[in-house]
Specification:
The complex is a heterodimer of chains A (410) and B (111). Chain A has 410 residues and is an all-alpha fold. Chain A has 21 helices and no strands. Among the domains of chain A are: 100 residues, no CATH class; 68 residues, Alpha Horseshoe (Serine Threonine Protein Phosphatase 5, Tetratricopeptide repeat), CATH 1.25.40. Chain B starts with a strand and ends with a strand. Classes of the chains: A mainly alpha (410), B alpha+beta (111).
Chain lengths: 410, 111
Amino acid sequence: MAPEEMEHFFRHESGRIVSLLAGIFGVRNLQLAEDVVQEALLAAFTQWSYGSVPENPSAWIMTVAKRKALNHLKRETLAGKYALDLELNGLTLGSFEESFQQERVEDSMLRMMFVCCHPILPLESRLALTLKIICGFSVQEIANALLSNESAIEKRLARSKQEFRDRDLPLEIPDDASLQDRLKGVRLGIYLLFNEGYNSSHPDFLIRKDLCYEAMRLCRLLLDGFPGQPASSALMALMCFHAARLESRIDDRGALILFSRQDRTRWSRELIRSGQYLLTEAAKGDELTEYHLEAAIAAEHCTAPDFASTRWDRIDGCYALLAELKDNPVIELNRAVILSQTQGPRAAIGKLEPLKEHPKLKGYYLLHATLGELYSQVGETEKARAHFQAAIGLTSSKTEVKFLRGKLGE
Amino acid sequence: MDEFIFLVRGYDYNDVSPEVMQKRMGAFTVWKEKMVVAGRYKGGQPLEPGTGRLVKDKKTVITDGPFLESKEIVGGYCIVLAKDYDDAVALAKENPLLDHCQLEVRKLGNM
C-alpha cells in the first residue's frame, strides 16, 4: 500500500465500517457497531505491527469486522437482545453475509451523514457525531478539534445516541419531499466542519488542516452520491479555493501571514482549477446560495495575479448579495476592509466605528484588530494600540496573539 | 550474537483511537524495518487480547483471566539479535513501543 493511501487509513476505515454495520444493526445499536469496529481495528493494528500489512488491508479489516459482528450477533441473539432489531432491519443471520459488500460502503456512509446531520440534533452535536462516526475521531481528538473537553463531547455523543434509540431513526436516504432540506443540513455540517478547521480558535493551532480535508472528503462523497446539486458544487468550490491557500497562511514559525503578503506561488494551482470547474458546475441551475457567493469571493482572490490587482468592486458586489441572504454583521466588517482598499482607511474607519456597538460584534477580536490596523495606517498610534490590545484580550488563539503583539511592536 | 526476547508488557488498549493506532504502527514499523535491514530482527507476534488459560496443575485450569495486573500482562513479543544485555537494552530503548508499554528483555537459553 502506498504511503499516501495509508494516511489516516485506520480513521477512514473506522468511518466506513461503522456506517456499514449501523446499516445492519440499526442506528439504535450504533454503539455496538463502534465497539465491533474498534476490536477489528485493534486486531489489524497489532497483527500488522508485528507482521506485515496484507495486500488488501481494507478487505482484511472488513473480514475481521464481519466475523466479530457475527460472533456478537450469535451471542446476543441467543440472549434475545438484538433479535427484534435484526428483524426490523429485514435481516436474518443467513442474509448477514451478503450485506458486507464494498459497494455498499459509500451508500452506507451517505446514509450515515444524513443521520449525523439530522435536524433534531443541535449543531454542535452534529459536528461531534460526524467526526466520531464518519471520520473515526476519538472523543479526545474531537474535543481538541472542537475546542471542547472530553466529558462535554462524551455527553453530547451519549445524548445523540439516546435520541437515536428513542426516536428509532432509520438509516435511509430521505424521501424526495425532505431530501432538499436534509441535503442543506448535511452541507451546513460540512461547511461548519471546514470553518472550524480553517478559522479555528484553538489556542495552539490556528488552522486544523485535518478538519478541512475531512470536510472536503465528505463533500466529495456527497457530490458523488447526489450529483447535479449546484449548492454542493458551490460548497466544494469554496473549500477548494480556501484549501489552495492553506500552506501560505502560516509561516515556518507558525505565525499568521497577512493575506496581502502571502506568497501566491505557494497557492495550489490544482485546487484553484478544481474550484473554478466546480464553480462553473454550481452555476448550472437558478439557485444562488451563500456557498455560491462565498466561493465567488474566494475565486476572485485566488485568480487575481497579485494583491494590487484584486477586483474589489466584484468582491464587494458578492458581499452585498451575501448580506441579503445572511444576516451577519461580519459581512459588513469585510465590506469595510474592501472600502479601505478602494477609498482608503479613513472611509473604512467611518464605517467600522459604529459597528463597535453592534451586539454581535462587540466582543469580536477581528473588528478590533482591523480597526487597529486602519488606525495605524493613518498614523493614529494611540488608537491603534488600544484596539490591538482589545483584540488580544478577545482571542484565545496563540497564533493570533503572537501576530497582534507583533503589531504592537512587542 | 545471541537471541534476546522483548516481552511487551502492559499494552493499554483502552481508548486507543484509529489515528493513534496508525501512528504507533508506523513508528513500530520504522523500528522493525531498521532491525530487519541490520539483520537483527528474528520475528515477533502479538498475543490475542482477552483471557487465556492458566493451567495450575493437572486438576486446576483457570480460564477467567487476567491473571496479572494489566500493566504486567504480556501483549506480544519480539526476538532480536544482540551482543549482550547492554546491547539488547540499547535496542529496546530505541523501540517506540516504550512510549506506551514496558519491555522485559530476556536472553533466550542456548540449547
